[in-house]
Amino acid sequence: MTFLNTTLSWLLSRRLPRIEGLKARPGDAQQTVFRSLIGRGRRTEWGRKHRYSDIRSVQEFQQQVPVSSYEDLFPYIERIMKGEQNVLWSSPIRWFSKSSGTTNARSKFIPVSSEALDDCHIKGGKDMMALYIANRPDTRVFAGKGLSIGGSLHANPYGRDSATGDISAVVMKNLPAWGQVIRTPSLDVALMDEWEAKIERMAQITAQENVTSILGVPTWTMVLIQKVLAQTGKEHILDVWPNFEVFVHGAVAFQPYRTLFSEQIFGGSGVGFQEVYNASEGYFAIQDDMSRANEMMLMPDYGIFYEFVPIEEADKPFPKAYTIEEVELNRNYALVISTNAGLWRYRIGDTVRFTSLYPHRIRVSGRTKHFINAFGEEVIVENAEMAITQACRATGAIIADYTAGPVYMQQGQQGGHEWVIEFAREPSSLSEFTQVLDDTLRQVNSDYDAKRYHDLALVRPVIHAVPAGTFYAWMRQRGKVGGQHKVPRLSNSREYVDDLLGGRYGSVYQ
User: Fold this and answer.
1) What is the number of other CB atoms lying within 10 angstroms of the CB of residue 469?
2) For residues 39 and 458, what is the distance between their CA atoms, to the nearest angstrom?
3) What is the rounded radius of gyration, in angstroms, for the C-alpha atoms of the chain?
4) Cα gap 466→86, rounded to integer Å
5) How crowded is residue 315: how many other Cβ atoms within 10 Å of its Cβ?
6) What confidence category does residue 472 fall into, taking pLDDT thresholds of 50, 70 and 90?
7) Could you give phi then psi for residue 463, rounded to 5 degrees?
8) How far apart, in whole angstroms, are the C-alpha atoms of residue 436 and residue 455?
9) 425 pairs with which residues across the strands?
10) Helix pair 123-135, 2-13: axis angle to 10 deg
11) Which pLDDT value is given to residue 469?
């Protein structure tokens, strides 16, 4: 394995001069991507509808093509899933990444073209490893195995000759042969559908491997590590994997977990952390400097054209939008993308803030809507409203106000959600109310359901009922009284929940 480590480190390091060039000239790379996308888009039904043949500049593109939500694009995506081609993109689409968060369906299906796989997702994985090598030139990470915690694949529910699944599973299935050699567990285990059985089997296999890195979401990583420790009887995971070097994380905010992983799970050792920003829609950014926590370099040559929309314009069909060369530091932008899989001026729902220019580094600053995504569950306000409505209907309750936030995982302890609710009429049973709310969330949100399965990552939510007038007093104390101010329904931090449960606005009881 020493030969393999040396060879792969050398080969991947050859990517670094290109990355250095991108740091200095991201605008040139984006212009090349833009011209390529418009050229390919002209051949599609979408391109003909929006007169791509007339587009000669980014300004004309922004004037002719509206910003789209998933709901806007879904009729086109549904046709592609049923077998039509050349609708949004000019090459055949055989893969669809499945994710949650849409308001009109349990799951979203994002088209993944061969170009998106090769020139975006897989290219991003190679660059991630190259940048890790640049930060740790003496690495021996390829002398062992990379543990990948992915999802599963399913047949396309709309037609034949294509498949759907988490983007991690789609990429894993399409990795080159050398990529399969350096990862664990084998595909038949990594792509298992039944999560509890998969985690159990992964723990059995990886406990016997020389695991040197992990790529995954913090919550599932904690679940797997706890399972490995339980099976081996070891107290610390470095007793099982003594050569472990780096945890590559993404999908949810890592800051709440950083101390837990660095001090408890990895025992204050020299294990590194590298953040990536990849999603069903594309691979966007990589932490290029591991000394700069929570900052990632936006990668401008992955077949994605980026636009950055000021928050106040985020919901407009033709907003003021800036290119990568026009952005300002420390300003929140809604991210809009056009991709080499046929997402055109797609409003992804994330907000980003630039922390440096040349290189253009970003932080993911939030979502354009309130949400909870501390564990990859992507619970949005529409999900919460459905669950609240059903719980009230089942128990005769009437809601005055509510907010919810995460309970972060601790060593040996799963995470969850905590709700603070002011009832205008109390439920007949708070326990039944909680159960119906939880069951409804599982029905309407597939990612929440996966995390709740057998309490693997999320346990049943906790609900606190507060006295009448609590939310009004809280909003008044915050200077937020008035029709234009609204109670934040969901938050990806504990700021609001902890403030309300602090006792300053009336007694809280469970």
Assistant:
1) 14
2) 46
3) 23
4) 55
5) 14
6) confident
7) -120, 130
8) 16
9) 398
10) 100
11) 84
